[in-house]
Structures are given as structure tokens and as C-alpha cells.
Amino acid sequence: MDLQQFDYHLPPELIAQTPVEPRHASRLMVIDRRTGEISHHRFIEIIDYLQPGDILIANDSRVIPARLFGRKRSGGKVELLLLKAIDSLRWEALVGGKRVRPGTVIQLVINNEPSTNFEASVTLTIEADLGESRRLIRFDQPIEPLLEAVGHVPLPPYIHAPLADRERYQTVFSRIDGSTAAPTAGLHFTPEILLALRDKGVALDYVTLHIGLDTFKPVTVEQVEQHPIHREFAQLSAQTARRINETKLAGGRLVAVGTTAVRTLETAAWRSAGIMGSLKEAARLDPSFCPWQPVVAIEEETDLYIYPGYPFRVVEVMLTNFHLPKSTLLMLVSAFAGTELIRQAYQIALAEQYRFFSFGDAMLIL
Fold it and tell me: In whole angstroms, how far apart are CA 150 and each of 18, 268, 298?
């Protein structure tokens, strides 16, 4: 499949730099896959499109303040972005700076002021070069308890405006630390909407998928099948799996809040079907249609790669934002709604000046 099918031109002024207030004041494009109808709303109107008996599944992962600043003994500046904890001291990280080689010792800068006592401050050592700007680093003490004090929110590279309130880059239901980017489809929800959905008879439950920065990385290979999909930690509890299966058997719809919830739920469906090991080629191994597949509890790093041709097993309705060109997220959405319908929707969104990306508007695909 040609990568150019997922490219489009986005004027920079349509990239949302700041969130709207209140959260549910964002716009909502509604797409009906059966009829091809596309309509325009405010996000608060999502209540009208969800039905009693549906179950809404959101990602409760919380963004950690994973952006750190430091100095080498020589005084050279270094910027770090923590990606994944290996253990209490070692992390995989993106490291920016000159000549940051294995063995380099870095002192963290706190409140823009490096300590005058290098040995008494928080330090880390570069242990291994993992390719490009990735490094394996080791702190001299567990860093996670210190992140709120020393770390900064790692906003996506296309957001240049400062964020006045850290919590505005968290969902209202975030609770489990681990992501380096927010599950942005969930940013539109407010307590008022969640209570209104509860009163309507829509159930709410959660999965956890910790998002890494690879989610923003454009695909560079010409044939999308050859892209090395990133792995992300995903968890779905036995209790949530049971509630999902009971909802489906009772005739309710499974509504996934964001592509991260989709990957988690579909991974759980493949595991229920008995598919073990890597899931990157799962859809190609068994492309047969199945009206629905039960889910099971999972706790793993998923490499499920969803692009057009993928047979969805469990997700019936998807809420998502507008995604980067040539991204795996745009491919996933195209797989769910159809490449041509999504291309048409994006052309309309551009013409109607929807706001794009993390702080942008939403799309509900029925």
C-alpha cells in the first residue's frame, strides 16, 4: 500500500496551539460509515450519538513530566526525554546534545539552575547508544519520585505555545503514570459530559496504554506494510473484559476513545482468538470477517499494526482527533472508516477550518 495515500497538506495555522475552554467546546465531526454522511457539531453533542447500553472505553494513562534538562561536566547543555522505564534506575530516552556518548555523566538542571556541587546533585550516566538519538541511561537514584519537581511536560513538537496549566494536557480520567504524550481523544471530556452519559445509561470503563513519542513519528517507507511499528505497553483488566463482553452480548456498542484504546481492545480480541506472539501481521494471517470477538485480560507490549485491510474484531464506534499526514494513526482511522471516506472528511475539515492534532477538534466515526 502506497504511503502517499495518507498524505495531505495542512496549513500551519490549523494546528491547534492551545486548548479550547471548556474542553467540550471543541468541534465534533460525525461520520456515518454506512451512509457516508458527514455532519458538524460541538463535542457536547456526542451525548446524542451514544445510546443506552453502550460502553465507552477510554485510556486512563497519565502523561509524566518526562522532559529533563541537564549539563555535562564540560558545561555543555543536554535535553532528555524519558521514553520507557527499564527498572527503577535505567530508562530508554531521547537525548539531544553534542557528543553525548556512552560513559558521559550529566547533571540535571532544576529550576533552570544547575547545582554548584556536581557530586551532590541528581546525575545520570549514558550507558548505551541505541541508535539515532535514543540512549540507555542510568540515574544515580530513582527518578520517578522526583519527576514532578524536576521534569517538564513533553508537549508534541508541533505545539510551540507554552502551556499555562499542566493538567490541560491530561484527561480528566488520567490516573496511571506512564505516557510521554496524552491520549488526546480523551481531552474533550469534562465531568459534566461523563455524568450526562452515565445518566443516559452509557457505561464507562478504562484500559491503559502508555503512549511513546513514536506515535508522532511519520512513516518514511514507501510501502506502509514495511513500517516497523512501535510497541506500547497495554493493559486491560479481567473485570473490564467481562463488562465489555457482557455489553456486546446484550446488544450494546463498544465505543473506543482514541486510537490507543482501539489498539488495546483489538489486541485483547486477538488474544481471545488464540493468536499468540507478535500481532504485527495478525490481520494478514487471518483476514476472515467476524461480527465480534470477545476480549480477554491482557498486560503486554503490543505491536498490533492497523492499516486498511485490517478486520476489526471488537470496536464498533471510534472517537478520535485529526492526525498527522503519513502517520500510523491516520492509517488506523482509514482502516476503520475507509480510505476514501477519511480523505473526503479531511478535505472537508480543511475547508471548514477544523483545528488539528492534540489540542484540536474531534471526529466520531459511527
Answer: 24, 36, 33
Which residue bears the cell 495515500? 5
CB atoms under 10 Å from CB of 43, counted, come to 23
Joined together, the cell numbers standing for residue 162 give: 507554552
DSSP assignment letter at 240: H
Give me the residue label for grid cell 460509515: 33
Cis peptide before 22 (omega within 30 of 0): yes
Give the containing element (helix H, strand E) for 208.
strand 203-209
Q: How far apart are CA 318 and CA 262, in angstroms?
A: 8
Give dist(CA 350, CA 365) in Å, integer.
18
Q: Tell me, what amino acid is at 190?
A: T
Neighbour-count burial for 114-153, b at 16+ CB within 10 Å, e otherwise = beeeeeebbbbbbbeeeeeeebbbebeeebeebbeebbeb
pLDDT, tens digit, for every residue of 104-147?
999 998 765 544 444 447 999 999 999 888 999 999 999 999 99
What is the value of pTM for the model shown?
0.91
Q: pLDDT tens for residues 320-363?
A: 999 999 999 999 999 999 999 999 999 999 999 999 999 999 99
CB 270 within 8 A of CB 279: yes
Q: Which of 163, 120, 168, 127 is nearest to 141 (CA)?
A: 120
On whether the CB atoms of residues 201 and 211 are closer than 8 A, the answer is no
Helices (H), the chain: 46-49, 147-150, 191-200, 238-249, 259-272, 282-285, 328-337, 339-351
Cα(45)–Cα(272) distance, rounded to whole angstroms?
34
Which residues, in sequence order, are bridge partners of residue 298?
A: 236
Answer whether 164's CB lies under 8 Å from 239's CB: no
What is the distance between the alpha carbons of residues 319 and 141, in angstroms, rounded to a whole number?
40
In angstroms, the CA 33 to CA 21 distance is 30
Q: Is there a contact between 269 and 295 (Cβ–Cβ < 8 Å)?
A: yes
Could you give the CA distance from residue 105 to residue 185 in angstroms, rounded to a whole number?
39
